[in-house]
Amino acid sequence: MRVKPSSSVLTQFFLEISRIATSDTSHRKTLSINDVRNSNANFNCAPTQMAPNCNKNLCYHLRFRTFDGTCNNLDRPMSGSAFSALMRLKAPMYDNGLNAPTCELRSLLTWSAP
After folding, report:
1. How many domains does the chain have?
2. What is the pLDDT of residues 72-93, one digit of tens each?
3. Per residue in 9-63, pLDDT tens?
4. Where does the secretion signal sit in this chain (predicted)?
């Protein structure tokens, strides 16, 4: 059987949540996109994967796919491999150019334009 919290506990909980939500955050430093990119580069958050030598075990790569996706395409061995960046065929579209989803009406207007 689940124990129900008392009303005083809930009241204290919601008071604390409202205090946090209405607290002044103007003194906090905001990070720019460049700050995040530099931070990731400095801490090696996104290491680059070295291209494998697919010719080393060509018989295997011609018959089977690898578990990490490398050498599945012998012309481009890193295409579609695990832990690699997605190469887009078309640039992404965002309303603010970074991360805001596009407006439905705006996208309909651009598609219907001659």
Report:
1. 1
2. 888 988 888 887 777 777 777 7
3. 888 888 888 887 777 777 777 778 788 777 766 666 555 667 788 888 888 888 9
4. none
Q: Return d(Cα 57, Cα 77) in angstroms, integer.
A: 13
Cα–Cα distance measured from residue 85 to residue 99, given in angstroms and rounded to the nearest whole number:
17
Spell out the alpha helix ranges (H) of the chain.
7-21, 33-42, 58-63, 104-112
Domain presence at residue 69: yes
Alpha-helical runs (H) found in 22-84: 33-42, 58-63
Residue at 64 is within a domain: yes
CA 12 centroid distance within chain: 36
Residue 104 covered by a domain: no
How many angstroms separate the CA atoms of 92 and 10, rounded?
A: 44
The Cα 70–Cα 64 span in angstroms is 11
> Is 82 in contact with 68 (CB distance < 8 Å)?
yes
| 70: containing domain | 51-86
